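A quick aside before the break. I want you to see a complete sequence-to-structure record at least once, exactly as it would be stored in a machine-readable document. Don't worry about memorizing anything.
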Amino acid sequence: MNSPQRQTRTHLISLFQELGLHPRGDLGQNFLIDLNLIEMIVQEARLGPDDVVLEVGAGTGGLTTYLSAAAAVISVEYDSNMYGLACRAVEGRDNVTLLHTDALKSKNQLAPVVMEAIRNALAVDPRRRLKLVANLPYSIGTAVIANLLASDLPWELMVVTIQWELAERMLAKPRTGDYSALSVFLQSQCHLKLLRKLGPSVFWPQPTIDSAILRIEPNLESASRIVNRGEFQLFLRDVFTQRRKLLRGVVVNLFKSRLSKPQVDLVLESMQFPPDTRAEELSVDRLVELSNRLQRSVEQERLTM
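That is the input. The structure line, written in tokens, reads:
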């Protein structure tokens, strides 16, 4: 197999000039040009021959060639020009499946063609493991990570480059401005570690914001405590939409068609919440417990009807 392509700033500028192309800012086309960082990402992914790597945002194929040196790769690229460049970069690499498509069907679902490609690759051998390793386009980073987590795919690891503000939201703690439904959904099911903060100079063209490399691994013990992940995700979205309002009023309104006010009060009292409690103040564990108790109350009410 050919060695990974060393796509430096000089190489990319020359390539784009030769073909008369320009990076598209609207698609977040900022290419990582620091080869040491690319090698670090691959090393942190701990790739082996049994791994299937999902890469969203193939770009010019620079990272793709490094990934394919160690594992099978499913790489997704939306832009036609970048898809053509990526095809050139991975030519002759039989372990790369390059998809010319949007990675998302909607903001809440990965594209069916991507899901099918992943399932087919995993079905080749029961020992195969799925990993997301990507320099994610800023506009879809949240959706790709959250939708992979919410899916039934047996993913084992994510090593992703995302915008710094998104990393802050994912890692945020209660009573901080960045604490959100995304923070809780991820932390309730995963171990997260910030690997590196990146300045604009390691990309071409340079973005106007900082970025981060984040490692995300499943926390199966913690995730097993969630009664229903789909309901939990919706619950978090709704309570954090009104994060600064008193929790009782928010929950009463959310469950008004399923639970009475006394039933909601009984759940809140059982958890000893003060009257002035707000969602943004609660720990991840407490939010999981609250969601579970509310769902159990709804089920009990359904069975008695």
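Two observations worth writing down. The chain has a mean pLDDT of 96. DSSP finds 13 helices and eleven strands in the chain. We'll return to this after the break.
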